[in-house]
Specification:
alpha/beta, D-amino Acid Aminotransferase, Chain A, domain 1, UDP-N-acetylmuramoyl-L-alanine:D-glutamate ligase, 4 domains, 11-stranded mixed beta sheet, 31 helices, 37 strands, 21% strand, disordered C terminus, cyanophycin synthetase activity (L-aspartate-adding)
Length: 931
């Protein structure tokens, strides 16, 4: 078997609502064979991966996959399940997989879920699939694996041999390193329970919670409003001690030593025992407790570095209290790393057994950290008169650390409910003194349940604050070995998003085959009157508050995240195209409004899309991801769009459906209005809001910019879709009508039906690359100028199927009097001149006497088309890249202000606005449709 392609879908997609990989797997020698054809394969596979017995597969119950395996199934399907099981072995909690035929013998697409917060750049999913492929291949060839070996590899045991087990061990280590730590994971989980969108930054602990101007940032237990001054104070143990001492907070006596002699003098003054620690240390690193001799002071000073704090060691127990936004949310007693004897095992064996606890991992990756036996551990053992080979008595504790940090293998007991109110008040005051919104207060007390005597001058404290921590670890509160788990992640999220906020901004997603860029731009234009700063993505780039910040085809998830992550954005309009949906997934989880403009033949033959039904399936994702209670804006004139409401995943009963269209007699519209619902329609020459029997006029179609007096009815359809979306996001009815009239297409929607003038010749610039778009554009030009007065400079994209290119060529042949054909600079996989040659052949076959010339590039083609035009003619310019085309037209003298002829053979719309009516059926029957 061989993996031929691999792509990562970072958000909800057509396969699953979570991230996934899509791999092209060619079976090669295993093509046409099934598992039942290979003697002993099922038994060897289940011996290696017994967890496969729990896989449901299509049966919907455990054992379903085993039944298929033994009865005979193809090896692509087996590889999918093996990959899922290996994922579970290395701690990636995923369960969704699907294998589908591509239609080509022996080639399958494997769709396998990825953990939602796994870095999008991670190589683990692809590498894991490669291990699954090799493992299946090896087992087919007769290799036997022990389940114990693979289980150990899944745990990341470093001693694994090379081969599948060794690679799996390395992937386990990588996956654990890339995974979010418990603190970050707790915050993410709490945010998602609240419906707050979360985006992780690469493989860091930095996460973005919420969108736009409601966006907040968190880095583990640090928020974007955590004081930098507070962090610096907490990071300097001596400054913290002095600040608290000056405020009357009980703290141990001590001072700074920058030489061994200074450390010795402080020791002599303070008296034993003392603590020696780095002034700016963290997580118990290089801290030495219970220092009682001058030699120990010298050793501890050298171990801690050249800038240390020497403090009197307080008696009692170690506690950590977590303060969030002026509230005590958790308290834990911290217990240093130790093992408990069983009367049979050595200390070394007890350490190994303790470290085998699946809750323990390397560093901060899991809720507990593995105990490391090092020089510090050996010194602690030596003080107890113990060694690694000793066998402690049953129940005897053997300490391996003096510091109680979880990062050195310690554990915790929850004591939140036992904390005395005086201690709680002290901790709140300490956090405020240091200036931290999230703080971990370390205390050494006889008992946290007892009141703490106030500090007195000249008297040694018996308990007090020993440290203050910025970005405190949350693990000890999330998974104490004794006592209640505390949802400290929720406390942090509540502080960041008070009053139940979900951190979202109004968001509309626009998709379809044609018109989506225009609808997105017009929606943003209509919303601008609400006073909100609008973020917009289109095929031409990203704009914030009307200013372009990024130029590119910005219709995919990365561009959506660019807008949603901008703290200046108050509402978002996201053009969402087929390519991004298929290749990367959505850039958001849910939208408030989804708009589907139309669904027609385009891009067929690409990305596995062969039919319009395939295309509708992809576009339906935008409808499926409209939140419950949101608004779905659909084109009533398009049968494929109408069919979307019948798809189970669209869940139309949970959304507000708003239809738009040019035909008010559409049965779906009539039925919709009869229920008192709302639609946006073309009625008696007006764009109207229809609710039940009432018709509220907004603008005459004759006055709609870009509709050319009604000669371009598709412009009216685009406007109606945009009005529906803007109204759903809160735009007022009067402001929408006013903004519609103010829309300036050449400026706000360049390259979409843009009319210019070169002398006595009109130039119509448009981006039409599929049969439906070209037909709509040419119908408009025919109504205004007629066929014989239309000259076209035509290019079509080379990545379209031959039959679609032929259909486009035939439509152009029927709609123009003369044509100049050219190929774009990027042939998209075709040979130079191949597309223009195909188009020329089809056009001549359609109209043998039609003048159709070939040109070398857009400059020659457009220049020749303008030369062929006579006074009063119109030149249609189809382009692939707008900027150079507009620059050339400027060179040729193009300006705005072209005259628009009166539409030939068309009745002008009525000037009387339709009002409220009593009989919707009678009024609908009177509707006059332009074109």
């Amino acid at each position: 078997m061989k993996i031929e392609s691999l792509r990562r879908l970072r958000g909800p997609n057509v396969h699953v609502s979570r991230p996934a990989i899509v791999a092209g797997l060619r079976l090669e020698e295993l093509a046409g064979r099934e598992t039942s054809d290979v003697t002993g394969f099922a038994e060897r596979l289940l011996r290696a991966l017994p967890g496969l017995a729990d896989h449901h597969c299509a049966a919907g119950a455990p054992g379903g996959f085993v039944s298929r395996l033994r009865g005979g199934t193809y090896f692509g399907h087996v590889t999918e399940h093996v990959c899922l099981e290996l994922s579970q072995l290395i701690g990636r909690d995923v369960s969704f997989g699907r294998t589908v035929s591509t239609g080509e013998p022996g080639l399958y697409h494997l769709i396998i879920e990825c953990p939602v917060d796994e870095p999008a750049e991670s190589g683990v999913p692809g590498d894991l699939l490669a291990v699954a492929v090799d493992l299946v291949t090896e087992i087919v060839s007769g290799v036997s694996y022990s389940s114990a070996v693979l289980a150990a590899a899944g745990a990341g045991v470093a001693q694994m041999q090379h081969g599948s087990a060794g690679r799996l061990a390395m992937l386990a280590a990588t996956a654990e390193r890339e995974a979010t730590g418990p603190s970050t994971r707790a915050i993410i989980a709490a945010a998602r329970r609240r419906g707050i969108p979360v985006e992780r930054c690469a493989d860091l602990s930095l996460v973005r919670l919420g969108w736009g101007n409601r966006r907040r940032l968190a880095w583990a237990a640090m928020s974007d409003r955590t004081s930098g001054v507070g962090i610096d104070i907490a990071g300097d143990k001596e400054i913290t001690r002095r600040l608290l001492l000056d405020a009357g907070v009980p703290v141990p006596a001590g001072g700074v030593a920058r030489s061994a002699a200074e450390a010795a003098r402080l020791f002599a003054t303070l008296g034993a025992p003392v603590v020696v620690k780095p002034r700016r240390g963290r997580q118990g690193d290089r801290v030495t407790l219970s220092v009682t001799t001058g030699a120990e002071v010298a050793y501890a000073f050298a171990a801690a570095g050249q800038d240390v704090v020497v403090e009197r060691q307080l008696g009692g127990r170690d506690y950590r209290v977590l303060v969030v936004n002026g509230e005590i949310v958790a308290a834990a007693e911290r217990i240093a790393a130790h093992v408990v004897g069983d009367g049979r095992s050595t200390v070394a064996e007890l350490v190994d057994r303790t470290n085998s606890d699946p809750r323990r991992g390397a560093g901060h990756s899991r809720v507990l950290t593995r105990i490391t036996v090092d020089d510090a551990s050996m010194r602690v053992l030596e003080r107890q008169g113990r060694s690694l080979g000793d066998v402690p008595a049953t129940g005897e504790k053997v300490w391996l650390r003096e510091t109680t940090n979880l990062s050195t293998g310690g554990t915790s007991h929850d004591v939140t409910d036992r904390m005395h109110p005086d201690v709680a008040r002290l901790c709140l005051r300490v956090a405020a003194l240091v200036g931290l919104d999230i703080a971990g207060i370390d205390l050494r007390l006889p008992d946290i349940a007892e009141p703490l005597p106030p500090a007195r001058a000249g008297r040694e404290v018996t308990g007090g604050v020993i440290e203050v921590n910025a970005v405190p670890g949350l693990r000890m509160h999330l998974a104490p070995v004794r006592g209640r788990s505390r949802d400290v992640g929720d406390a942090i999220v509540r502080a960041m998003f008070p009053a139940g906020s979900d951190g979202r901004i109004p968001t509309a997603a626009v998709t379809g085959t044609n018109g989506k860029t225009t609808v997105a731009r017009l929606t943003a234009h209509l919303l601008a009157d609400t006073g909100m700063r609008i973020g917009l993505t289109t095929s031409d780039g990203v704009s914030i508050d009307g200013r372009t910040i990024f130029r590119a085809d910005a219709t995919g998830p990365l561009s959506a995240q660019m807008v949603l992550g901008d703290p200046g954005v108050q509402a978002a309009v996201l053009e969402t195209a087929r390519g991004g949906l298929l290749r990367r997934g959505l850039g958001y989880d849910w939208s408030d409004v989804g708009v589907i403009t139309n669904i027609t033949a385009d891009h067929l033959g690409q990305d596995g899309l062969d039919t319009i039904d395939d295309l509708a399936h992809v576009k339906a994702l935008v409808a499926e991801r409209v939140r419950d209670g949101g608004t779905l804006v659909l084109n009533a004139d398009d049968p494929w769009v109408r069919s979307l409401v019948d798809r189970p995943r669209v869940r139309a009963d949970r959304k507000r459906i708003v239809w738009f269209g040019l035909d008010p007699r559409q049965p779906v519209v009539v039925e919709h209005l009869a229920k008192g619902a709302t639609a946006y329609l073309l009625h008696d020459g007006w764009l109207v809001q229809a609710t039940g029997a009432r018709r509220t006029p907004m603008l005459r179609v004759a006055d709609l910019p870009g509709a050319y007096g009604g000669a371009a009815p598709h412009a009216a359809a685009n406007a109606l879709a945009a009005v529906a979306a803007a109204r759903a996001l809160g735009a007022g009815q009067e402001s929408v009508a006013s903004r519609l009239a103010d829309f300036d297409p050449p400026v706000a929607n360049p390259g979409r039906a843009t009319l210019l003038r070169i002398g006595d010749v009109s130039v119509f610039v448009d981006y039409g690359h599929n049969p439906a778009a070209l037909a709509a554009t040419l119908r408009t030009l025919q109504r205004l100028w007629g066929v014989e007065r239309c000259v076209a400079a035509v290019t079509l994209p080379g990545d379209r199927r031959d039959d679609l290119l032929a259909a486009c060529a035939q439509i152009v042949a029927d709609g123009v009097g003369r044509a100049v054909l050219y190929d774009d600079e990027d042939p998209r996989g075709r040979q130079p001149g191949e597309v223009s040659g195909l188009v020329e052949r089809e056009m001549r076959a359609r109209r043998p006497k039609l003048l159709a010339l070939r040109a070398d590039g857009y400059r020659e083609a457009i220049t020749e088309a303008v030369r062929l035009a006579r006074p009063g003619d119109v030149v249609l310019v189809l382009y692939e890249s707008l900027a150079p085309v507009l620059a050339l037209l400027a060179e040729l003298g193009a300006v705005r202000g072209a005259d628009v002829p009166v539409p030939s053979g068309m009745a002008l719309p009525t000037t009387k606005a339709p009002g409220a009516v009593q009989s919707p059926a009678r009024e609908l029957a009177r509707g006059v449709l332009l074109g």
